[in-house]
Amino acid sequence: DDTVCAIDCKGVPESLDVIQIAIQTGVYVIDCIRLDFGHVAKCLQPLFESNHVLKLLHDLHEDILGLETIGICDFESLLDTQLVAEHCWGDVFVGLNGLFQKLGLPEHPSKHGTKHVMRDNSDLWKRRPLQKEYIEYAALDAGLLLKAYYQFATKDGGPGLDFPSAIVEASIARARAASARKGMRCICFDKANNYSMASLELLSIIRPQDVVMADVLKHECEVADLINLLPVDLQKKLVEESLDNRPTASVKYSLCDIVLDVGRRPWCWIKNERVMLSDDLERIMSRDEIDDIVSNIGGFGTDNRAGLEKKLHRISGMRDRSGNIVGLTMRVGRWFQGNAAMLIDLLLGTDKSVLILGEPGCGKTTIVREVVRVLSDYHNVCVVDTSNEIAGDGMVPHPCIGYARRMMVPSLDLQAQIMVECVQNHTPHVMVIDEIGRVREVEAARTVKQRGVRIIASAHGDLRSLVKNKDLRGLIGGVESVTLGDAAAKEEAKRKDFSFSRGLNKTKVQRMGEPTFDTIVELRRGNHHDWRIVRDVAAAVDSILDGRKYKAQIRSRDPFKEGIYLDM
After folding, report:
1. Nearest alpha-carbon partner for 312 in 399, 193, 238, 438
2. Is the pLDDT of residue 493 over 80?
3. % of the chain exceeding 70 in pLDDT
């Protein structure tokens, strides 16, 4: 006869071990392992399909996946109380205890302790018989959620019990999206709220005009200019002869490098696979062919890099002992409009400095270009372009950087000096540097930040490798070793749950100071659409030095569809 019930699931998302259903008269705890899954699904499916009973869940993403494992796939009349909290107070990711605090209710008394046990015992809810304390813990989860629902009626700023139908509609949309995206959250950014992160399901219903999300990527690539540098016979595999020698689709979107060496067969890399440019085993590059290509490009700098006028491609040379060019690596430069959409909250909603990390060829520079364009619409942006790789070769920068200005660097050794000169002479709000890789540049970046200029930059590696890199770890605050006294050493061992059986460790490795960069974006080669976002670099470095995992978001997208997806 109840018209409202609260539901929670344990063992999710991989399986469904326990379901708790709370109504006004009590809580049912259903053991899905002891009972037949099919029987449980048959009994509960009418409840989930009913339009007459409002089902409360909190952060339903994993619960929906767990219910699907036993065959419950159709859902009506759901209310995700996490969406209610977002609607009332703007808190997107509030947990269950956080919800209780906002409502003035006591927290779940054993939440933190049991979660700690669950971290060390991933199979806790599969063990039988279940201990009484865990049954009571599970029952209380659902019971307190139902109590929170009725508390909305008396809480100032709450919606009462007459919830807007939009929140129920958004909850059902969230359930369907969780199923389709394997539990990942659909997010967007709220333009009216300083581009803060929001749930797409809710904001698109209550204020669709304020939704900012990732559009389909628009690809701008002038790869034909690079292909035309090659001898005619080596172009055939890269173009469609029937379409006026236009680059093939795979070349346009996936060609990465063309590799040419004197006396060796020429090849290229497409989708991480080596493709020979000629099927003739005897076809090798001659010195004259290399010289002909070199004569058609801009001059090489001290870093052995060159480019094409107003193009984004990078051409790097290999020299013999006499200084002659004997090999070329021709890196394709691309511009994707919308490529920075997953970072809009960080770029336009904060003034944080952002460091983009990744292996060579993972797309750092491509992202930096679009970041420059987005920021240049609102700020005075200066690009310190070491090899003209961000804004292209030539006097006039490529249009991909929007209203930003570009300072060229005559020599790699002068990059740090140019960074400081940029601040002194051109008063930028934001400075952008591609590839910080030397100690002097690390020190220059710190100087720039201390003078109140925001920095966007890239570097090689990931956060853990950066902590170990003596030259670059100054970007994240630096690392030092300190000696502890007996009392401090005991406190440190207790904090890390270390035993004293092997004696006290009186040496501690810690962060030296505040990081130059507040936020880090980690990329992986070959995976251009899943980015790890570390929003609190200082806390993450401290966790790494303590031997613990650090918090990061995984933001994903489909390049051919609208939308951003989040995995916490």
Report:
1. 399
2. no
3. 96
Given a contact cutoff of 8 angstroms between Cβ atoms, the answer to whether 306 and 278 are in contact is: no
- Of 325, 311, 344, nearest to 533 by C-alpha is 344
> Could you tell me which residues are beta bridge partners of residue 460?
358
Which residues does residue 530 pair with via DSSP β-bridges, in sequence order? 556
Decide: helix, strand or coil at residue 193: helix
Cβ 330 vs Cβ 257: under 8 Å:
yes
Distance CA 377, CA 219 (A): 20
Sign of the torsion formed by the C-alpha atoms of 95, 97, 100 and 102: negative
Rounded to an integer, what distance in angstroms lies between the CA atom of residue 45 and that of residue 49? 6
3-state SS, residue 427: coil
Token duo for residue 208: 């669709």
* Angle made by CA atoms 504, 505, 506, in degrees to the nearest 5: 105
* Residue 375, C-beta contacts closer than 8 angstroms, at least 6 positions apart: 347, 348, 381, 404, 430, 432, 456
The pLDDT of 339-351, averaged and rounded, is: 97
Distances (CA, A) of 361 to 191, 370, 383, 392, 527: 33, 16, 20, 17, 10
- C-alpha 306/C-alpha 290 separation (Å) is 14
Judging by beta carbons within 10 Å of its beta carbon (0-12, 13-18, 19+), is residue 272 exposed, middle or buried? exposed
State the first-to-last Cα distance of the chain, in angstroms, to the nearest integer: 37
426's enclosing H/E stretch is: helix 415-426
Determine the average pLDDT of the residues in 350-373. Answer: 95
Contact 24, 56 (CB under 8 A): no
Rg (CA), the chain: 28
Element spanning 239, H or E: strand 239-240
Which of these, 253, 194, 190, lies nearest to 564 by C-alpha position? 190
CB contact at 8 A, 502 and 518: no
Reduced to 3 states, what is the DSSP secondary structure of residue 202?
helix
Return the structure tokens found at 501.
């059986």
Does pLDDT of 285 surpass 60? yes
Residue 141 has pLDDT above 90, yes or no: yes
> Is the CB of residue 372 less than 8 Å from the CB of residue 404?
yes
What 3-state DSSP class applies to 86?
helix
Matching residue, tokens 């249009």: 399
Taking the C-alpha atoms of residue 492 and residue 269, their distance in angstroms, rounded to an integer, is 50
The residue assigned the tokens 């019990």 is 161
pTM: predicted TM-score of the whole model, two decimal places:
0.90
Amino acid at 566: L
Given a cut of 80, whether residue 153 has pLDDT beyond it is no
Structure tokens at 11: 């063992």
Inter-residue contact 452 to 424 (CB < 8 Å): no
d(CA 471, CA 476): 11
37 burial (CB, 10 Å; 0-12 / 13-18 / 19+) is middle
Q: By the 8 A CB rule, do 328 and 315 touch?
A: yes
Question: Distance between CA 142 and CA 19 in Å, rounded?
Answer: 9
Buried-exposed string 439-449: b where 16+ CB fall within 10 A, e elsewhere: eebbebbbebb
Q: How would you classify the pairing of strands 4-10 and 54-57?
A: parallel
Neighbours of 256 (CB within 10 A): 17
**Cα gap 516→528, rounded to integer Å:** 26
